Amino acid sequence: MSEIERLPYRLLTGPDDAEFCRRVSAALADGYVLHGSPAATFDGEHVIVAQAIVLPPTEARSRA
Question: Which intervals hold domain DUF1737 (predicted)?
Fold first, then answer.
């Protein structure tokens, strides 16, 4: 997230596919940590997943 503000909390959502896994992996590499368990639902065609991520408190404070 180079030029985009790094929010202390984000909820990533999307189809349960490799691209979603890449987005979560990229956020983890950017300093975010998982917050809680992932959620999944079925929209009649696809499995849709959600994962909350947060910046650790020390990083979130340094960005405020």
Answer: 9-54
